[in-house]
Design brief:
With 152 residues, this protein is α/β, with parallel strands linked by helices. The chain contains six helices and six strands, in the order αβαβααββαβαβ. It has one domain: Rossmann fold (3-Layer(aba) Sandwich), CATH 3.40.50. It binds S-adenosylmethionine.
Length: 152
Protein backbone atom coordinates (compact mmCIF):
# COMPACT_ATOMS: atom_id res chain seq x y z
CA UNK A 1 0.00 0.00 0.00
CA UNK A 2 2.91 2.36 0.75
CA UNK A 3 3.96 2.01 -2.88
CA UNK A 4 0.61 3.25 -4.19
CA UNK A 5 0.43 6.01 -1.61
CA UNK A 6 3.85 7.20 -2.77
CA UNK A 7 2.63 7.17 -6.39
CA UNK A 8 -0.57 9.05 -5.50
CA UNK A 9 1.33 11.64 -3.47
CA UNK A 10 3.69 12.17 -6.38
CA UNK A 11 1.19 12.29 -9.27
CA UNK A 12 -1.98 13.32 -7.43
CA UNK A 13 -5.51 12.36 -8.45
CA UNK A 14 -7.89 11.75 -9.93
CA UNK A 15 -6.86 8.10 -9.87
CA UNK A 16 -8.23 5.19 -11.88
CA UNK A 17 -7.61 1.72 -10.52
CA UNK A 18 -8.07 -1.04 -13.07
CA UNK A 19 -9.26 -4.31 -11.50
CA UNK A 20 -9.93 -2.79 -8.10
CA UNK A 21 -11.36 -5.97 -6.59
CA UNK A 22 -12.76 -5.40 -3.12
CA UNK A 23 -10.86 -2.16 -2.61
CA UNK A 24 -7.63 -3.16 -0.88
CA UNK A 25 -5.93 -0.17 -2.55
CA UNK A 26 -8.92 1.92 -3.63
CA UNK A 27 -10.35 2.35 -0.14
CA UNK A 28 -7.19 3.56 1.63
CA UNK A 29 -6.47 5.99 -1.21
CA UNK A 30 -9.98 7.41 -1.01
CA UNK A 31 -9.58 7.74 2.76
CA UNK A 32 -6.44 9.78 2.13
CA UNK A 33 -8.57 12.20 0.13
CA UNK A 34 -7.95 11.10 -3.44
CA UNK A 35 -10.75 10.97 -5.98
CA UNK A 36 -10.62 7.42 -7.28
CA UNK A 37 -12.53 5.35 -9.80
CA UNK A 38 -12.37 1.57 -9.65
CA UNK A 39 -13.04 -0.78 -12.54
CA UNK A 40 -13.73 -4.46 -12.05
CA UNK A 41 -15.35 -7.17 -14.12
CA UNK A 42 -16.69 -9.09 -11.14
CA UNK A 43 -20.09 -8.22 -9.69
CA UNK A 44 -19.41 -10.18 -6.48
CA UNK A 45 -16.11 -8.33 -5.90
CA UNK A 46 -17.81 -4.98 -6.49
CA UNK A 47 -20.72 -5.94 -4.24
CA UNK A 48 -18.25 -6.64 -1.41
CA UNK A 49 -16.54 -3.32 -2.07
CA UNK A 50 -19.87 -1.46 -2.07
CA UNK A 51 -20.64 -2.93 1.36
CA UNK A 52 -17.33 -1.56 2.67
CA UNK A 53 -18.00 1.83 1.07
CA UNK A 54 -21.34 2.04 2.88
CA UNK A 55 -19.42 2.06 6.16
CA UNK A 56 -17.23 4.98 5.08
CA UNK A 57 -17.96 8.60 6.02
CA UNK A 58 -19.89 10.65 3.48
CA UNK A 59 -16.84 12.68 2.38
CA UNK A 60 -14.98 9.45 1.53
CA UNK A 61 -17.97 7.87 -0.23
CA UNK A 62 -18.20 10.94 -2.47
CA UNK A 63 -14.65 10.34 -3.69
CA UNK A 64 -15.31 6.82 -4.99
CA UNK A 65 -16.77 5.85 -8.35
CA UNK A 66 -17.15 2.28 -9.54
CA UNK A 67 -17.46 0.86 -13.04
CA UNK A 68 -18.41 -2.74 -13.63
CA UNK A 69 -16.91 -4.09 -16.84
CA UNK A 70 -14.04 -5.66 -18.70
CA UNK A 71 -11.02 -3.36 -18.74
CA UNK A 72 -10.36 -4.45 -22.31
CA UNK A 73 -13.59 -2.78 -23.47
CA UNK A 74 -14.22 0.92 -24.02
CA UNK A 75 -15.94 1.56 -20.72
CA UNK A 76 -13.92 4.49 -19.40
CA UNK A 77 -14.65 8.17 -19.26
CA UNK A 78 -13.08 11.03 -17.36
CA UNK A 79 -9.59 12.44 -17.08
CA UNK A 80 -7.05 10.84 -14.75
CA UNK A 81 -3.60 11.85 -13.59
CA UNK A 82 -2.77 8.37 -12.41
CA UNK A 83 -3.95 4.99 -13.70
CA UNK A 84 -2.83 2.00 -11.72
CA UNK A 85 -2.75 -1.76 -12.22
CA UNK A 86 -1.75 -3.55 -9.02
CA UNK A 87 -0.59 -7.09 -8.38
CA UNK A 88 -0.10 -8.23 -11.97
CA UNK A 89 -3.67 -7.44 -13.03
CA UNK A 90 -2.45 -6.10 -16.37
CA UNK A 91 -0.30 -9.15 -17.06
CA UNK A 92 -3.31 -11.34 -16.26
CA UNK A 93 -5.00 -10.17 -19.48
CA UNK A 94 -5.14 -13.03 -21.97
CA UNK A 95 -2.89 -11.80 -24.76
CA UNK A 96 -1.19 -8.78 -26.34
CA UNK A 97 -4.34 -7.79 -28.25
CA UNK A 98 -6.19 -7.44 -24.97
CA UNK A 99 -3.29 -5.59 -23.34
CA UNK A 100 -3.08 -3.15 -26.24
CA UNK A 101 -6.84 -2.54 -26.25
CA UNK A 102 -6.71 -1.90 -22.53
CA UNK A 103 -3.81 0.54 -22.79
CA UNK A 104 -5.50 2.40 -25.68
CA UNK A 105 -8.60 2.71 -23.58
CA UNK A 106 -6.54 4.05 -20.66
CA UNK A 107 -4.73 6.48 -22.91
CA UNK A 108 -8.08 8.02 -23.92
CA UNK A 109 -8.73 9.07 -20.34
CA UNK A 110 -5.20 9.97 -19.27
CA UNK A 111 -4.53 13.63 -18.55
CA UNK A 112 -1.76 15.41 -20.45
CA UNK A 113 0.79 14.81 -17.70
CA UNK A 114 -0.77 11.61 -16.49
CA UNK A 115 0.95 8.28 -16.05
CA UNK A 116 0.01 4.64 -16.09
CA UNK A 117 1.74 2.50 -13.50
CA UNK A 118 1.78 -1.24 -13.92
CA UNK A 119 3.03 -3.52 -11.21
CA UNK A 120 3.99 -7.11 -11.76
CA UNK A 121 4.69 -7.73 -8.14
CA UNK A 122 2.54 -9.15 -5.38
CA UNK A 123 4.20 -6.95 -2.77
CA UNK A 124 4.57 -3.49 -4.22
CA UNK A 125 5.59 -2.00 -0.91
CA UNK A 126 9.08 -3.43 -1.25
CA UNK A 127 9.94 -2.46 -4.79
CA UNK A 128 9.78 1.30 -4.96
CA UNK A 129 13.10 3.06 -5.22
CA UNK A 130 13.05 6.56 -3.74
CA UNK A 131 14.05 8.11 -7.06
CA UNK A 132 12.01 5.88 -9.38
CA UNK A 133 9.18 8.34 -9.84
CA UNK A 134 11.45 11.35 -10.33
CA UNK A 135 13.34 9.46 -13.05
CA UNK A 136 10.20 8.66 -14.99
CA UNK A 137 9.19 10.93 -17.83
CA UNK A 138 5.77 12.23 -16.86
CA UNK A 139 4.56 12.46 -20.45
CA UNK A 140 2.34 9.42 -20.65
CA UNK A 141 5.23 7.13 -19.95
CA UNK A 142 4.31 3.66 -18.85
CA UNK A 143 6.32 2.78 -15.79
CA UNK A 144 6.92 -0.88 -15.24
CA UNK A 145 8.59 -1.76 -11.97
CA UNK A 146 10.03 -5.22 -12.04
CA UNK A 147 9.93 -6.17 -8.41
CA UNK A 148 10.95 -8.83 -6.06
CA UNK A 149 7.98 -10.90 -4.96
CA UNK A 150 9.61 -12.00 -1.73
CA UNK A 151 8.15 -10.31 1.32
CA UNK A 152 10.99 -8.95 3.46
C1 LIG B 1 -6.16 -10.24 -7.54
S1 LIG B 1 -7.58 -9.20 -7.65
C2 LIG B 1 -6.78 -7.65 -7.38
C3 LIG B 1 -7.67 -6.66 -6.75
C4 LIG B 1 -7.00 -5.34 -6.31
N1 LIG B 1 -6.38 -4.65 -7.42
C5 LIG B 1 -5.98 -5.57 -5.21
O1 LIG B 1 -4.80 -5.31 -5.43
O2 LIG B 1 -6.36 -6.03 -4.15
C6 LIG B 1 -7.86 -9.19 -9.40
C7 LIG B 1 -9.16 -8.50 -9.82
O3 LIG B 1 -9.12 -8.32 -11.22
C8 LIG B 1 -10.46 -8.42 -11.71
N2 LIG B 1 -10.39 -8.66 -13.16
C9 LIG B 1 -9.87 -9.73 -13.79
N3 LIG B 1 -9.94 -9.56 -15.11
C10 LIG B 1 -10.52 -8.37 -15.34
C11 LIG B 1 -10.87 -7.65 -16.51
N4 LIG B 1 -10.62 -8.14 -17.73
N5 LIG B 1 -11.45 -6.42 -16.38
C12 LIG B 1 -11.70 -5.92 -15.15
N6 LIG B 1 -11.38 -6.57 -14.00
C13 LIG B 1 -10.81 -7.77 -14.09
C14 LIG B 1 -11.04 -9.55 -10.88
O4 LIG B 1 -12.45 -9.53 -10.89
C15 LIG B 1 -10.42 -9.28 -9.50
O5 LIG B 1 -11.28 -8.48 -8.72
Amino acid sequence: MDFWKTCADFYDGPILEMSCGTGRILLPLSQLGYDITGVDISNPMLAELKQKILNCPHDVRCKIHLIQGNMVDKILSGNYNLIIFAVSTFLALKNDDERLACLKSCNQVLSDNGVIILSNSKFETNIIRPTALEEANPEKEIIIEYGNDKKN
